[in-house]
Amino acid sequence: MVFGLLRRAKKGSIREPSANNRDDVQSALAMGQQAIRDMNDRLRVLEERIKDCVAEAKEKYSKNDKAGALGALRRKKLYEEEATRVTSSIMTLETQNITLEGAQMQQLALSALSTGAAAHKRFQECMATTEVDKLMDQLEEQRENQLEIYDAMTQGVSLPTEFEDELDALMQEEFAKEAALEQSIDIAAESLASVVEQPVVEPEAPNESLQTRTRVSEATEPSAIAQ
Predict the structure, then answer these.
(1) Cα(27)–Cα(49) distance, rounded to whole angstroms?
(2) Which of 17, 76, 146, 191 has the largest CB neighbor count within 10 A?
(3) Is this structure's pTM higher than 0.70?
(4) CB pairs under 8 A, 24+ apart, for 155-159?
């Protein structure tokens, strides 16, 4: 909707609202809100009078004053008609305020869009398509020149090979040391395993006859000493 308004608007017709216009809008909104408050007060008064007329009609009818009761009902009808007109006026004022606020917001939005479009146009004028193409061509040319310089500087440069034999000999020596160390570790592990697995020999029980002779000799020694 906003872009449709932009397309339909005449060239140069969209501009930021002036201070006087904003003041006029705020003044109109304030007057409308004040009128709505006054009419709401009037509506409350009319509602109270309608209630009073109903009460008066009931009271006079209870006193057999039919004419007075009918007069109270006629006044009630007039108050109801006025209340209807006041309600319609309140709705009209509220609609006008809402429309005025919406128009003010639309004007601000259109003004912001117009300002943004003008700024974008100025930026585009500073960035011509041909200049951008030239800039990209220059960057590509500089990149290619840099690659050519790098290729020229690194041409013919290779790693030295005169020390490869010496390096191979050093590596073979290190491999031999590692193999000897691993072999000594394996031998030590096998020796330790054989010691741990050797069976334990328990001492044999003494011969029974030897034990008997020992006890007999121990028994005869005291008697010989006594003689």
Answers:
(1) 33
(2) 76
(3) no
(4) none
